[in-house]
Structures are given as structure tokens and as C-alpha cells.
Amino acid sequence: MAARERRRSASRRRYATGAAAGILVATVAFAWMVTGGTFQFLQRNLYANFYDVQARALFQGHWAMPASTLTVEGIREGGRTYMYYGPVPALLRMPVLALTHRFDGRLTACSMLLGFVVALVFVATLGWRIRALLTDAPLGWPEATATAATLAVAGVGSVLFFLGSDAIIYHEAELWGAALALGAFDFTVGWLAAPRPRTLVWAGVFATLAILTRGSVGAGPVACLGLMGLAFGARWALGVGPTGAPRQGGRPQRWVVGVLDHLGLPEVASPGRWALGFLAAAAVPVALYMAINEVKFGTLVSLPLNKQVFTMVNRNRQITLADNGGSLFGLKFVPTALVQYLRPDALRFSPLFPFVAFPPPATVLGGVHYDTVDFASSITASMPVAGVLGVVGLAGVLTGRHGPIRALRLPVVGAAVGTVGVLAIAYIANRYLADMVPLLALLALTGLVRLRAAWAGWRRWRRWTAAVGLCVLAVFGVWVNVGLALLYQRALRPSVPIAMREGFVALQQRLHAELFGGPPPEVSEVRALGHPGPPGSLAIVGRCTALYQSNGSRWAAVERARSAGHVVLRVVFPDRGPGRPWPVLVNGTPGNGDYLVVDPLGPGRVRFGYWFQGYGQRWVYGPAVSIVPGRPYVLDAVFDPRLAQVTAHLDGSSVLLAGLVRPTGTLEVGRDAIGGPTLARFPGRLTQLPVATPLCDALAARLGHFGRGR
Length: 710
Description:
Blueprint: H1 2-34, H2 50-59, H3 67-70, E1 75-77, E2 80-82, H4 88-97, H5 108-134, H6 141-156, H7 159-163, H8 169-193, H9 197-211, H10 215-238, H11 254-263, H12 271-297, H13 309-313, H14 315-323, H15 334-342, E3 348-349, E4 356-357, E5 372-373, H16 379-382, H17 384-399, H18 403-406, H19 409-417, H20 420-423, E6 427-428, H21 437-455, H22 460-492, H23 498-515, E7 523-526, E8 538-541, E9 546-550, E10 555-560, E11 566-572, E12 582-589, E13 592-602, E14 605-612, E15 618-626, E16 632-640, E17 645-650, E18 653-659, E19 668-669, E20 685-689, H24 694-706
Parallel strand pairs: 5-6, 7-8
Antiparallel strand pairs: 1-2, 3-4, 8-9, 9-10, 11-16, 11-20, 12-13, 12-19, 13-14, 14-15, 16-17, 17-18
């Protein structure tokens, strides 16, 4: 017994060493991605301060948030505005926010990095628990090395890495939801291996955290715990033993015996008590979820999407809700989502770096009306090694005859329940693949253990074929997820900083010229922007007045000259300034002006705002920004009439994004000469910096050399 325990302890140490090495590699890669390659974690981003503001609202004892923070995502109820996302990421911020305002709106990248590490740690511990459940074979260093590769691929070669492409609330919620659901399943499988009350408590805690982060994926572990409670309740009520044999005095029905036998649950001394424990572990998260929903929206489960600001301003959302009884969910959306998320051709190869791109939009089946069909790949195209191992694991779980592997059936069923939310919603997006990660992890890790068990009995050629095949799929998955993350982060997401987009397009074009030569692909010269071209295509307006890139549905700027409304300023904020807004850019005539301003909030804190006159006359504000008076900053500001867009980036961080309401005339810098709501002059120092379009000039020269582009 002592020798066996020593072997098990040695195996555990080797596994932990390999897992730690793989997690470290993946974490460094994710840190690079989530910070845009800068490793500066305290960056600002649009739609990234929701959890910070929610935490501060909870400090004050309520759930309501400022409408200006939530913008289109807010749901208005009873004169207040609420966020529909769960509170857990806000709760995690509270220890920091309780001490200082300095990091408000700047914690998202840090939170996502932590969530990524938590997810991989639970993938690692879940893998060990599944291995321990199914086999007691010793683990040598070759398998430890394979474990390191497995964890690295699980991190970099999966949708978890793609989520790092944008430090934004949508991706943060997905990442933490998946991570916490993995934690709940980890402790659930741990209980199956060694039933203990403490393990069940932790499973319930993480199920609660998961559903209070993201209800769809969190429903998976909650469903699993509830089903296990019902199974033990049925065993206790009918006096059924683990193999279907009746206990003393029991009169089990034959079909119940068959069902319980196929679940492979472990024998326990007091099934009635365990039934109550599991049911309580499932009921608590559901009760808390309903209570919070009731307080905010007056409903137990549903969201009043008809009261969401986005619904009020978006015609397509209104049509979708009207067509679906006021909800975005329905079984009629499942066929489209299943096909999209499972199809092996959900990928497109490109002549431009990273040489892989998203496929065309999903094909909508059944004539249903979708709210949004965004960029999306699939499990089979972007995570093929997990898909193959998942099929192997699923076959074992469904057909396995011995108790341990059958015990995984209810966790698999629960994890499958956690995917229903993203399958039944009128919305297609690549980030939704994250809700499938717990199911993929359970099945793929089971498949890996089965593959390892079969490995010893295979001939050498078969081993080499399997090893090479899995390695190729793993490398392909890493390439695809890194490529799609780079493409989305630097070209396709709505809030790409223009400097990042310009640098990425320049890299793409430089590599294409060096590798392939010839004219730049998908570049055209136009007098005016027309309908957006294929994703990634470029349009040169005029004589390099501006260079724009299409994502397939809209244009985004790559470079803009001063004549296109682009101004770069060196800004020095004053120590103290008057309370009225300070003018930065002013456009228009008296009574019909547009203003980009700095709004002072107090010592060391400002926010940027856009004011327009003549169309309802109101302010649009960006997030609060901490500044150091007297220190020079670079402000990149744009009034772009072609995109009807006002943007401002302070030292590369986005601080304002709004819609421009009128064409740009002559831009006044730092001076309000038309009698608007601002000071007459900016109280600090503004110095105009030169604005150039070197990339546009180079592309125009290449087109001229090879002939005009398309």
C-alpha cells in the first residue's frame, strides 16, 4: 500500500510539473494578446468599465448604474438603469476598488488574465481527476511532457485565447463564466472519485459563481448537481443500490433500476442525505440568480429586452423580438447554431498574414430572423484536436460498461445543458464557443485518458500515426486561434485603435510584398466610400485623403489626413481648471456646432465628451480618466464625416467613441469661437503634431507600379 501511494504521489508531482509548464506558456501568450502586445495591463477600453461601476453601485447598496456608463447595453426599469450581466467579476474587483479610484476602468485585462489562469488550472485538475477516476497507471515523464503540451494547446489553441483579443465586458464574462463552470465540474468529478461533503460544497460554490457570472454556461453545473440530487433521491426512495440491486425492503421499478445503473454513481452510505445536499447545491445558485433578477428587472429569469436601450435604437433588434414573442431565445435557432459551430469549413485562408480568416457569415436555416450574425468559426475548424479527442471521450462515456467512466455521464449531460443558451439565441458569435469549453474539456480529457490506455496495445506504426495526427491538429488549432485573435483584435473588432489597425495592415502588406510580390490584394482607389467590400479589403479615398478597411459590413479607418478630420495633439492638462468643459475641437456655426471637449471631474480626473447642437442637443461622454497635470499626453482625435464618427484616444487608449451628427467644416483647435457651452479657450496647452499617411502613400505607389487595383 505504501509503495502504491508513493507511485501515486510521484505521478501527481510529475503531472503538476507538466501542467504548470503548459499553463505558464499559455499564460505568457495570453498576456501578450490581451494587452495588444504591450504587456501593459492597466489599459482603458470602451465597454470595459461596467464591472467597476457595478462594484461601486454595490458599495452604495443598490444595483442601478448610470445610463451614461451602460449606454446601449442598459436596461431601463422603474426610472433606473441596470446591467444584465452577473455580479461576480464586479465582486472580484471590490478589494481593489475599495482602496482607490486610480484603477477604475482599467482592471479588465488583469481580470481576464486571472480568469484565463483559473480556467487552465481547472482544466489541469479536472484532467487529473478524470485520469485518477479511470486508471491508476503510473505517470512517467513522457506523459508529463504530453500534459504540458495539452495545457499549452488548451490555452493557446482554443477559444479561451481568442477571448483575449478584446479586453471588453463581453469577453470577460465569457472567460470567467467558462472558468468558474470548469471549477464546478472539477469538484463534481472529484466528488465522484471520493465522495466528501467538503467537495460537494465547493462544487456548489463554483456553480453559484458560474451562474452569477454568465447564466447560460452556469446552468450546466447547476443542472448536473440537480440531476445527481434527483438520482440519489430516487435511489433512496426506491431502495436501489448502485448496481440496481434492491436494498432491504426496497421495491424498485425496473426502468428506474436501468436508469440508475447506467449512471454509474458511487455507492454512498446515506443516499437520502446526499440527495438533499446535491439538491441544495443546485437550488442555492438558482435562488440567488432569481433573487437578483427580481430585484433588478421584476422577473425571475427573463430579461425585459424591450426596455434595453439598444432595442429602442436598433430596428433589427425590434424585428427579431417581434418575430420571436419578445425574446431572443428559441429552439428554432438551434439548427443554424449547431451547423455553424460544428461545421469543419468554418474558416477561410487568406494571402495576407496571419493567412487565416473568418468564414462568410453563417447560413441562417429555417427562415428565422437573427438579431446578429457576427464573425464565427467552429469547434471542428478552430479546435480540431479537442473535437477529435472529444468524440473519443463521448464514445467511452456513452458505451462504457464499468462504473467510473459511466459516472461521467451526468457531468457530460450537465455541460451539454450549459451550451443550450448559445445554441438557442438569435445571435452567432465566435466568443460563444466559450460556453462549450466545459463540455469539450470533460470529453476531450476523457478521450485523452482512453487514448493513453489503448496506446500500449497498439503497433508502432499506429502509435506514430496517432501521435503525428494529434500534433498536426494541435498546431493547426494554435495557428487558427492565434490568427483569428490577431485578426479580430487588430482589424475587425469595433474599437480597434487606429494606430493598431495601421500597424497591422502595414505588417500584412509588407509581408505580402516580401513573400509574394505583385500588387497589393483587395486594394482599390475610390472617390467616395461605397458599400463595404470583403473583410480585410482596403479603399484609398482621393489622393490619400484617407485609407479605410472593410470588415464585410462596415468601413473603419486605417489612416486619415488632416483634411479627413484627423488631428493629433500634444496635450498638457492644467493643475486646476474652470468647471465648464474645455474645448479641444470645435466644428460648425453658432447654434449648430459640434464640440470635442475635456470635462473636468476633480483633481486628476477628467472625461472626454462630445456635444452637438441642433439635434436634441446633448452630451455623449467617455469613461472617467485619471491624468497627471503638467505631464504631456498625445491625443489622437477625429471628426470623420465619411464614417459619421467622433473618436478620441489618449496615449493610445480609447476615451471616446460617438456618432458625428453633421459634416465637418473647418476644425478649430482649442478655441470656441461660435459661443457654445465651453470655455473660450482650452486652459492647458495644445500643440498640433504632424499627420502623415505613409501606408496609404506606399499602397498607392504599389498600385501605380502594377496598375490600378480593383
